[in-house]
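Risk register update: the risk of archive-format incompatibility is retired. Evidence:
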Amino acid sequence: MAVLELAGLTLGGPHTAIIVPLTGADPGAVQAQAEMASQPAVDLVEWRVDAFAPGADDALLADTARHIRTTTGKPLLATVRTGSEGGHFTGSPEDYARLVATLASLDDVDAVDVEYRHPAAPETIASAHRASTAVIGSFHDFAGTPSLDAMVAHLEAMEQAGAQLCKLAVMPHNPEDTARLLLATATRSRDAHTPLLTIAMGRLGLASRLCGRDFGSCASFAALDDHGSAPGQLPLDDLAQALSIVRHAER
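Archived output:
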């Protein structure tokens, strides 16, 4: 499996990394979640900036990122998720590019998420690279699960677009959908030069969250209390315990 080194964390290493999202709508809520995310089970923190105070200025973004990093001591991924891919951001392509570029320029942000099909993706990825900030390319389908060939093509296209980690999240409607997502992960991981992070959401996708590494996925998302960011995320303690059982079984 290809790897990405992120502030001391190896994504694609021997174990499934645990990522927790911070979804607070104001600095106080984010700080409270950051305190919960400081526990050892967490490997990477995702700040969902699209859920944060609308119109936050650069100083507030920088201050909040600094508080998250200081509180958690974890690598920080900043994400602006658009409405078309399950998020809250509704601004123009120019607004999206400007906000993600601002986040990529912050000293306390280690990686930014870029929706690779977004109209502003090329310039957004380029600006992150200029800031020496890692890019996690992403594609989300909350309606269904594409074909095997389509999912493999999405993962390949993200890498070609300049992503250093490629994320794919889909919604299964039957067990075959989850199996197809896992097969797409295994298929692409044979040729990928970046780590993959693939998720089948909802109850039917649980296997992808627990056993994804066996198919080539490097990480899994967990919810802090009721503060999840997508359907099917297990509570942090439950996911950490389940992955520990999986690791034990691998010995």
